[in-house]
Amino acid sequence: MLEWRLQGHTFPRIARELTEAGYAPLSLARISRIVKSEIRRAADTCVLQRDMELMRLDQLQAALYPKAMQGDGPATDRVLAIMDRRAKLLGLYSPRQEDETPEPANARQRLIEKLEAMAARMKGADT
Questions:
Q1: pLDDT at 32 over 70
Q2: Is 64 within 8 Å of 57 (Cβ atoms)?
Q3: pTM, 2 dp
């Protein structure tokens, strides 16, 4: 049922598909509860997987941290990489400025500049 719902099928269509496949008829409310339950279960699984990954990162960092604090360059690089991975996993980074959508005025100015450059190239090609 969840797979059908993910494909965009409506609850009435899922009910029809189940009946046509030989299953006992289910109410739309029951199908909805089952689908919601499966979504919650999938979300819980994702949380558990994330938590396991965080624990693994903690173990790796704990093993390398003493060496890094003694000045071991490769161990320091690994600890920093682990910290970076943890921050990404937790969504701690904010969007960078250049990733933001440009202001319309800037976009307009860039478009004008590109059009002028194209016009100059075309004019040069005509002569």
A1: yes
A2: no
A3: 0.53
CA triple 22-24-26, angle to 5 deg = 125
**Structural domain containing residue 55:** 2-93+101-126
Are 14 and 1 within 8 A, CB to CB?
yes
With beta carbons less than 8 A apart as the criterion, state whether 18 and 28 touch: no
Mean pLDDT, residues 14-33 = 94
Whether the predicted pLDDT of 122 surpasses 70: yes
Given this model, what pLDDT does residue 31 score? 93
Contact 104, 111 (CB under 8 A): no
Contact 19, 25 (CB under 8 A): yes
Both structure tokens of 60: 């790796």
CB 10 within 8 A of CB 32: no
Distance CA 122, CA 127 (A): 9
How many structural domains comprise the chain?
A: 1
